[in-house]
# Entry
Amino acid sequence: MNKKLIEMWAPWILLVVLILLWQILCSALDVSEFIFPSPWRIWTQFLEFKGIIAAHAWRTFWVTMVGFGIAIVVGVLLGFVIGSSRLAYAAVYPLMTGFNALPKAAFVPILVVWFGIGVGPAILTAFLISFFPIMVNIATGLATLEPELEDVLRVLGAKRWDVLIKVGLPRSMPYFYGSLKVAITLAFVGTTVSEMTAANEGIGYLLISAGSAMQMGLAFAGLLVVGAMAMVMYELFSVIEKHTTAWAHRGSQGH
Amino acid sequence: MTTVNDDDKAAPWFVDFQDVWLAYNDELLQQNHFAVEAIDLKVRQGEFIAIVGPSGCGKSTFMKLTTGLKMPSMGKILIDGAPVTGPLKISGMAFQAPSLLPWRTTVDNVLLPLEIVEPYRSSFKAKRAEYVERARRLLQKVGLGGYEDKFPWQLSGGMQQRASICRALIHEPKMLLLDEPFGALDAFTREELWCILRDLWTEQRFNVILVTHDLRESVFLADTVYVMSKSPGRFVVRREIELPRPRDLEVTYTKEFSDIVHELRGHIGAIRQTGAHTTA
# Structure
């Protein structure tokens, strides 16, 4: 019982220890706040600029969510097509892996030419970077069907569609929720990277302008905020995953 | 080698294979490389047959032919008097892996075929309560009463296999095909399931085709045992089991029983010898 409690609090304790260590090092070695701000400095700057940070954070948040939303729709549709047909799988999959290997940040200048500075490039970068894991996971879930089970159903006159809806789709749900956790953090990366060069708003923009004004405390505060947002979303999808696909996390029950 | 005598006389046989050959694709057909060869098989209505043989001898191919999941390259297959042209929904199948869906409860797993096969499919929503009742009765019959609303992963391997057999039987098929259904179970559970299968069959008298490599299992359950050879996959021995029914597990300890098992074992041994230039 006690062990469990310690385990639960362990990450928080570690965090506090790290922050204290950081603070002690900065104070003891008298590190310049312009080079490497102490946690205290970050905190005071966070409070000082909290209105500005909140505005930028809100922008980054909704832009990311829009990009992520598009990624879910496109990822699920593409994944469904690829996973349900061998031909589509053979045709699309290699191209998609090739596409995935491209650094998405490299798209930003091109997107700026097409859509101008602002929301467009950020949404699209978030989308481009996050749809791939969703697509792959849906496709994998659909494609990995036990041949015996398919025989059992086919002999009853099941059409490909029946098998997909009754078996393939539910089976791919744990993969899907698993991929959402990965994709949401990637989407935040996409948005932030894009905002750094192609926006006048958002955490990415805040980081660049704080950096160039030597406001390192503010830059770090922005970094922490975007990290916190990504983590909260990750945990949210984690909880959804556990509640919707409990059968896939059966743990120690059964055998 | 193809039989071209299409004098569709009303066959008294439920399963009627007439010189059936199957190659998996055209290339193999060109090379005269067949998975199963020259299968001639006549099965009476309600007969329980078992097919035994070394692994990889085309037993599973034979099952696919019988259910219409595969079409023969040559020859003719009649089931219940009609030529096979596609998947036969009068059949139910179960395999070594129970392959139940982990997100459905046991009773919902058993109901799955009714959501797919006609005529149940169109009336599934309207008659759901009735079908659920039927599924529960079937589960109780195989000793799964009280486990209907559990998830498959909460059941033991033997229980999962029982549920899998229920799933194969829920649409009241005329023919039950079992591909090594008890292969993964321990000896005691296996014997328990033999008896359950025996009782279901005695009560409902569907045709059973049991593919197995357990000779005791085949002799205990079947009316007729066929021994299949490996590449080429052919039936080399047909052995009627005259042991009186109803058979009790005790019968497996009689001399009569072990003589038959012994005899079949001899045939299998002979097959393994002849096809053993690579293995020792």
About this structure: Chain A has ten helices and no strands. Chain A touches chain B at residues 146, 148-149, 151-158, 162, 166-167, 170-171, 173, 245, 247-248, 250, 253-255 (CB under 8 Å). Chain A has one domain: 41-247. The two ends of chain A are 24 Å apart (CA to CA).
